Amino acid sequence: MGILLQVRDLKTYFYTDAGVVKAVDGVSYDLKEGETLGLVGESGCGKSVSALSILRLIANPPGKIVGGEIFFEGKDLLKISEKEIRNIRGNHIAMIFQEPMTSLNPVLTIGLQIGEALELHRNMNKKEAREEILRLLRMVGIPDPERRIGDYPHQFSGGMRQRVMIAMALSCNPKLLIADEPTTAVDVTIQAQLLEVVKELTSRLGTAVMLITHNLGVVARHVNRMAVMYAGRIVEQGPAAEVYAHPQHPYTIGLLASVPRLDKPRKERLVPIDGQPPNLILLPPGCSFMPRCSYRMEICSKERPELRPVGDGHFTACWANMER
Amino acid sequence: MADSRLQIEKPERKERGPVWDVFRRLSKRITAMMGLVIVVVFLLSALFAPLLAPHDPYEHSLADKLATPSWDYPLGRDELGRCILSRIIYGARISLLIGLIVISIGIFVGVPIGVVSAYFGGKVDFIVQRFVDTMLAFPGILLALLLIAMLGVGLHNVMIAVGISTIPIYARLARSSVLAIKSRQFVEAARSIGSSHLRIILQHLIPNSLSPIIVQSTLHMATAILWAAGLGFLGLGVSPPTAEWGAMLNGGRLYIRVAYHVATFPGLMIFVTVLGFNLLGDGLRDALDPRLKT
Question: Looking at the whole model, is its pTM more than 0.90?
Fold first, then answer.
């Protein structure tokens, strides 16, 4: 499998009155064709911003992509023209957003909204587009699409709206689907259904998926490789099973310890990570996680650890050597 | 309340679309319905003036000048013996025309300015908004008088003058709606599928910011009619023989002691029409309020 997306040293900063927020500060990762990558981390760690940066959807001002390269099928997305990136958006890289309640336009029927992408990228006439929309609605499991095609978003439930979003995102057979916490806003049962729909369809279409989430359970089930982000940087990266079995970064260890597990006795207490996420304007010079870390050493406050290999395709940015 | 809920659950209600929905909500308010009736009567009399008017509004008869209301001339005759009812009916055409053109100027110039200003933000927004501030700082009537002084007296110039003075109001209104809408996720979603700026503005921003603009334009209709009448009263509007409410009011002013009807009926018409548009506008504001939608 070829490499589809290469992100190299991506830096996205926000220039606010309080100072420069380094939301994404030197992030690198690869995504192979058809692969599913999980991007994990707590709120505000830069997951969404790094994903939005791929499509250059960062609002400017205040945000700006200040450095790095994003190669998609050999082209640097940060260097191409506005027109070219518009052709990539929706056509080659599509996105699903967090809030199904607000990511559809309330005054347009869902048929029109799904049709928008078809019209933009696939030059379909009305009749072809209608057939295609019906096919897409059927594909994502919306019952009775002939009747539903003319309905407005408020006539759908949250889960159904997210299915509409998935239909919209997959309407042009993109090579990459970015799903930005697609299940955060819906019920747990619906979450599972939606993820199954995404998984089933993307594997059928051979679409690579970047799944952004703070739900480690979701990652374990649906992801080939995962990257853990903390304070705008990737602190650990590797095959999902490997990272679960042998987490190498204290933050990943902390995250996994704070999730309830079925295979542990119920009496066992969850271990929270102490402290607060750091202020992204005033990051300490050393490791960003140092103040909250139980493995900290002297070097941690002085020098920032870079990603280093610790196993087959497994990298961590930590000075400490965890036993395996 | 229980009754209306039962109605909502009827399946056939679903098929009727948003216009019906607004009308249903409007029909629950008696004042709004009164406004709607007045506005409809006004529109009908403007559209079908030649069919409704009992006499030719320009046919004069000095022998019957200032004649009091009678069966044949229900509202009496004016200072040149013309039928006041017919002139009022024809005057509705002028008022409607002025209202529509004034609002069209306001909307077609003001809304794009406001939308572009809000959508692009930053420097564009700053420059456009300072310009709008300057225009808003002028009292509207002063701006209109100034423009008429520059362009000359006449109906067209009145419409242009009043229209221009409403531009900043629509620009502000559109800007504030778009500011609220542009950060909503569906706009970002539209960008993420590759929509151009123009498409986002036309397809997503303008339709979603329409309801305050509809309300404002209904209310503005009243203001425009009032302004046009005011300028007509001052002799800055239509040229004399044309039936126009403000000019009629001014013509009758001299005879108010001897013939009350000449000034009273056009005045009443202005009052009732303006009231009608205001009531309708208020009703629409409630009917289109997204917070009341379920």
Answer: no
